[in-house]
Design goal:
The chain is flat, with a radius of gyration of 26 Å. The protein folds into two domains: 16-145 and 227-291, no CATH class; 153-215, no CATH class. The longest helix has 27 residues, at 110-136. Strand 5 and strand 6 (263-264) form a beta hairpin. Strands 1-4 form a two-stranded antiparallel ribbon. It has a two-stranded antiparallel ribbon with strand order 2-3. It has a two-stranded antiparallel sheet with strand order 5-6. Helix 4 (62-86) packs antiparallel against helix 5. The chain has helices spanning 16-19, 22-38, 42-58, 62-86, 110-136, 139-145, 153-179, 187-211, 229-252, 268-282, and strands at 93-95, 98-100, 103-105, 108-109, 256-257, 263-264. The two termini are 36 Å apart. By secondary structure, the protein is mainly α.
């Protein structure tokens, strides 16, 4: 993929996130995303975003994270701009609109603007968390995790994604051929011909797969590879981040309300969460233990 793409791509690296097994690294990214799913608090979201960006930079995928940042900034700004235009809740009026058919239209309030910015920041954090996942988690390893549960589903999904464009091309060719006839057939006849061709192709594919032994697929054996110290460190960080986020959410609530008036709680629990997410996220990625190979624990 070119450097101008929006979706980061995985490349092998030497960081702890690369060295850890796919399930652990994906749990790490999920824990960071959990913070954004549980909180709308701008300070907490800023801490989560900083943790994701720094994690990607320390892991050596800064250039990949820039791709996700383009999409995150675009979506975040779009939400920030559109929310005050679509809703006029709140009591602090910034721009007075007009009255059309007895209804106020075009009012822009401070509360709607602030809520849009907070929601846009929340969306940006989730996008960046997925960008980090896409950059550090080996997709082949993730597929191997599901082989024991969906050893036929993966093949079905792969065939479907490849056959749909092929069937669409067949239908387009049938339409082109039909227009060359003196009396072109109707849409129903062309659809029936395309469906018949799709069924014939599916039978041929099924026969070819059966000959190659795919019909006798069995669940692969369970892998028992020992955990490395990177697995342990990254898993502990993911568990600590998720535990801290849930604990603060249960004890202190959301801490941010936009309507009808803005109320932002900047007490110790939320500041601790914002700071703690950054520290816990970087803990398994820095120090000598994060760069000394993949020796097993």
């Amino acid at each position: 993929m070119s450097s101008s793409g929006l979706v980061p791509v995985y490349r092998p690296g030497s960081s702890a996130l690369h060295a850890a097994r796919a399930a652990v690294s994906s749990s790490y990214c999920a824990a960071l995303a959990l913070v954004a799913m549980l909180f709308e608090h701008p300070v907490v979201l800023t801490g989560a975003l900083l943790a994701i960006v720094l994690s990607g930079w320390v892991a050596g995928v800064g250039s990949e994270m820039k791709r996700g940042a383009r999409l995150a900034v675009t979506i975040g700004l779009m939400i920030t701009v559109l929310n005050p235009l679509l809703t006029s809740e709140g009591v602090t009026l910034l721009v007075r609109g007009d009255e059309i058919f007895g209804q106020r239209v075009g009012d822009i309030t401070l509360e709607a603007l602030v809520y849009g910015a907070a929601f846009g920041l929340r969306a940006a954090v989730l996008i960046m968390a997925f960008a980090l996942y896409s950059a550090v988690v080996d997709p082949d390893e993730m597929l191997r995790l599901f082989r024991r549960f969906g050893y036929r589903s993966a093949l079905t999904a792969s065939l479907a994604t490849r056959l749909v464009p092929l069937l669409a091309r067949d239908a387009s060719r049938m339409s082109d051929a039909a227009r060359c006839r003196p009396r072109p057939p109707g849409r129903a006849e062309r659809a029936r011909a395309a469906l018949s061709g799709a069924l014939d192709r599916s039978v041929d594919v099924a026969a070819a797969l059966e000959v190659r032994g795919y019909g006798d697929a069995r669940r692969p054996p369970r892998s028992s590879a020992p955990w490395s110290r990177h697995d342990v460190r990254v898993a502990c960080a993911a568990l600590a981040i998720a535990t801290l986020a849930v604990a603060v959410g249960l004890s202190a609530g959301g801490g941010f309300v936009a309507y009808p008036r803005i109320a932002l709680d900047v007490s110790a629990p939320f500041l601790l969460l914002a700071f703690g997410v950054v520290v816990l996220a970087l803990a398994p990625l820095v120090g000598a233990q994060s760069r000394l190979g993949v020796a097993r624990a």
